[in-house]
Structure formats: C-alpha cells, structure tokens
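Q: Got a minute? One more chain.
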Amino acid sequence: MIEYNAEFKCIAGCGETYPLDEIVYKCKKCGNLLEVHHNIDNLKKTSANEWKDLFDKRVGSNKLPYRSGVWNKKEWVLPAINNDNIVSMPEGNSTLFRAKRFGEIFGVNDLWVKMCGNSHTGSFKDLGMTVLVSMVNEMINNGKKIKAIACASTGDTSAALAAYSAYAGIPSIVFLPKNKISTAQLIQPISNNSIVISLETDFDGCMKIVQDITKDNTIYLANSMNSLRIEGQKTISIEIVQQFDWEVPDFIVIPGGNLGNVSALGNGFEMMYELGLINKKPVIALAQAENANPLYLSYLKNFTEFQPVQAKKTLASAIQIGDPVSVQKAIKTLKNFNGIVEQVSEDELAETAALADKTGMFSCPHTGVALAAFVKLVEKQKISKNDRVVVISTAHGLKFSEFKVGYHEKTLHDIKSKYANEPITVKDDADTVRDVIEKELMTR
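A: Always. Here it is, folded:
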C-alpha cells in the first residue's frame, strides 16, 4: 500500500520544512509564508486515470469522510490525518451553475458560476476551515496544549471557524472590525458560541491583533496565512474540472481580498497538471474592488513592486483589505497562470450583481465584483466569446440581504440602482391589479 505524506515547506525555497502538526505559520529561517508540500513522486505511483476513477467513485458516497467534496480527495489534502479526527459538515460538492441568460447578454454562451456559497456556513471558507480545524483536533487529541482557535475576519472566515470549532467542541475567538460586516455575518459566530471581539479598526488592524494574540502557540491562528486553509480551498479547482468530466475551462474569474483563495485555486490546477489529470491550465483573472485594490495597482506595474493601501469602504466588505497577507503567493500564482487583475467600481459591482439576479442568481457583492470584472474583460476582449468561463461565487447572497434591500430600496450611497424592483402598491380590486400586471409584463 502506498503511503502518501505532506509537510510544510517555505515558499521562498530556502529549504526549511516542518511537520503539519507543528504550530508554525512562517518560515523560522527567512520569515516567508509556508505552503503544504506533497510527496509528488509517491502520488505519481497512482496513475492519472486511477485518481480520476477514485475521485469519481467517491462523489455521492455516504461513507465518512468521503461525503465531503474536500475529503473525498483526502490523499491530496491531508493524507496522514486519522479519519476519526476529521471535522466535516460535508462541505464542497457545490453547484456548477450554467449562467446561460447572463452570459448571453454579453455574447458568451459558455459561462458558469461555481456556487461555493452553497455550503454549511454559506461561503467557500468552509472548504479551508474543515482542514484547519481537523488538524487542530488531531493535535489536541495527540496531546498538544491548544486552548482555542482564533481568526481576524470580515465575516465569512469567522462564520466558518465558529461553526467548525463548535462542531469539534474547540473554543473559538473571532476579531471583527466594528460596524464593517453585515448583520447576517455577525450573527453566525455569535450563534455558534464564539468569543466575538469587535475592534474599532479595519480588517488589517484585526489581523495585527490576532497575530500578536497567537504568538504563544496556545491559541491557534486560523487565517489564510496558515496554509492548511489553502489545502481545502484548492479542491475548488479539482471539483470544477471533475464537474466538466475532467476538461479544463479556459478562464477562471475569482474575487480577491486577502488573496489566499487565488493561490489555492492555482495549487489545485498545478497539482492536477503535475499528476497528469489535465494537460493545460486556465487563465486566472483576479477581481478587486476599486476601493481595496493593492494587487491591481501592482499588476499595472507588472508586479515589479507591491505597496499596501488604506482600503476604503466597499460594499464587498469581505475583500475590504489593503494589506493582504497572501500577496506573494497570489502573485506567484498569477504569473504561472497568465494571470490578469481587474478592478471594478462600487456602481459596477452593485449593478452587475442586480443584473445577474434578474437572470436567476442571488449574488453576494463579492460575486458582483467577479461578475463585473468578467464583463469588463469581455469588453476589453481579454475573454473571447468562445471561451468557457467559470466565475467563482464565494458566498451566498442571503448573507448580504442588507445589500440587496438597500439596492432595491435605492438607499445605497452613489448607486443608481437601475435594476431596482420595488413592490407595487395596488388597491384590492381585481381589474386594477390585472391592468398593473399587463403593464408590467410589457416592460420586463
């Protein structure tokens, strides 16, 4: 029987490695971030077709832990973890939605949206959190003295950490920027019994605090600078290709804030490519809000330099980040995938999300950023009308109902709301109602 294994390895190539059950977030030698490095030679002992058959066989399985879209690829994620320590609420296996009507508006007939918000806590963050909390659970069960798991968050990470920690029976602590996340996001960690600390700062300020709090190693850091999270999130790539019967799309558009998700996306494709499951790579386009756009500004300079920015308020609150911790990983990924970075304004993200909703979606503002970037890239002819394009939807629109209500009530600052659809007040007379309906049907 082949024994698969993985370890932490410095991304800078200094040669430092650490076991996955060591509490370490940066290289002790050079200070760079770490990544999970798999023994590819061992993985290659199983053929590409054997991997495809194994992963296909596990889809829909009721056997633990393979019900999960993450853990049905366990050998590529955390191969050595004890199944009894895995903390899963089966995440992943999310819908690949054919956005036919929305794509046709812009002349693209092969547009798809990966609905990562169709998950336990309503966002793609579940995919990484199941891996991180499972590893912590194993460490605790093996005698490590870990009191709690903590994260800084703009909403979705805190919800995922709170839920998975509660399920495992491990205390969680979340640091949130005061008055900068939606009520629906705030209530999730509160409901799941997290210690919720609201700081009078932005996400970058919260990130500084959580890194300080976790220095003594008794509280475990759960932000995406911890590459265990990336291991779960990379399964989005594998799942997309699997859903296309192992064919690779031409273009992936993904919104980015702290930028762990784009490097995760790249890792999944790189692994499939190296192991022979695919023979080409997609172009990856990273979408940023104009009010929090440090990577876009770096892209304009061909990534020759990167400068953090002071992020301004954006409707896409989860990516309101001016100093992303995973920036070097993201730049490396974009260089390897012919990458593009695009920015969109507040008006563009709100109007595009509303237009997408008119075709049957229910888009969160961050998905609105990605969809608006898709539109701009089509207009700039970066995306061809014959390309197969996948837009990553990072969260469920129900987590941002205030954004939706504000749009349709026309109360969002500086947003025209040209697709607003307000209720029509009519007296209770059938003929009057009939007349109103006929009039409305003629305009829609």
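A: The chain has a mean pLDDT of 95.
Q: Perfect, thanks.
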